[in-house]
Please model this.
Amino acid sequence: MRSTKYKTKESVHNRAVEAINIPFNKLPIEDMASALLTLNSRSNKGGVGNFIEQHWFDLKADSSQLPDFEEAHVELKVTPIKKSRKTLVAKERLILGIINYCNDFNLPFEQSHFWNKIRRMELMFYEHNKDVPKEQWKIIKSILYTFPKAERKLIEDDWNTINKFVHEGRAHQISGSSTNVLEAARKGAGGDKDWRPQLFGEEKALQRAFALKNKFMTKIIQDFVLNDSRHEKTVFTKKFEDSNLTSFSDFLNSLVHPYIGKSVKEIAQLVNLQNYNPSSESARTILIRAMLGITLDTKENQKEFEETNTKVRSLTFYDDGSLWESFPLPTFRFESLVETPFEESTLYQQLVEQRYAFFVFQNTTETPKVTKSSQRKLYRSDLIFKGFTLWNFPMEFVETTVKGAYKSVQTVLQEGIKLEPMLNKDGSPKMQKGTHKISNNLLKESDNLYIHVRPHSKKAAYNYGNPNGNKLPAAAVWTNKHLLSNPQAFSDEWMTTQSFWVNKSLLESEVKKANILNN
Model:
């Protein structure tokens, strides 16, 4: 047992509160010189946490599976916040402890060392400000935190998910997007030393740590740092708490199961949607929220999805089981992409952390041979709801094929992208709405690398000053530029902003694995 004079939760909290709003170098610490060495240690990423733990609470650093204050049953966590768009958000996820792939999961969740350690935490928040010396930073809020019932259920669900990966010898396939609010985050300096053996299976897995996701930490900040108390529970949260289901996926399924196999018009009647227009752009989003019991005129009830880093999206299939369209990811800037290693890229972060709740619709009517665009317009109102699935991009694809695809895009941009007017069979330039169609040698869907690159905007931009354009890191290499009716409008330095897209073929395959289209 750790020896400490703080033996009750009240004494721990009171000591934490004493540090609020006092610059670190002004705290009444006996050996401030030694304390500042701990604070500013370049080899110590947890400088602030160790400073508070060792010099404010007089705790010795260790890797015990027990709470820091064992008698008080309180774990101490010191975590940074930052300003973003005139508000405060979490700077990073909250690391809770290294995962041991060999012996962390031999007890039920309620009896696990993990839950015993973090069920009650003293959370001390400090503002991370790179423009201010670290010694002048200060604790701005400290709370004695326990998990509400709904959040505790989410954490148990996540722990069980990680447990399943480990017991199936698939720890190497875990990613942050596999779970709700508790993730298995990569932890280590990088390189061969970060690989760990598994209890089951011969393949080694990257070292990972249990962590509360960034968005979940931001929610705590919004509740307690900005507002001093938790937000009132949403109707959605209350439903989850009152259900006898621990799995978030099972809970969502219980809400939407009554509507599986019904048309969008039938569902609209069942959920009492007035003046529902099934052909509108937002039709399926409105329908999904109604099935989940989410209020239509506020985003308050979407918090559960935001906190779990889960985005609700609809996918629509044709009668033959093919998907309407590929799935877009955020746009990127060419110059930034060239300079950013894959593991530090926005794409990597998106693929390993973002999870999706895909709500699947299908046009089950056999149709004549018309274009898919026409089929979409003609039969949108007859779509059938087939079910939903929680999905994240497979980690084994991210670390291999997608990484290679990303590097190929970097190479094309570094060497100078190849641009050429697209031509009709008679040799004349192809036009779309009065604008030349231009081909390039960026990643194509036909390359079958799970992702591809194409514009998100419908408006082309190949010149300076166009809001839909993006500066190239190297001059473009044009072919047949003289065939353009206005070549001066097409710069060598600018190009239409692009996005990565997830290939239709991958999404089709993943949805079919979930057996949804057979509903």
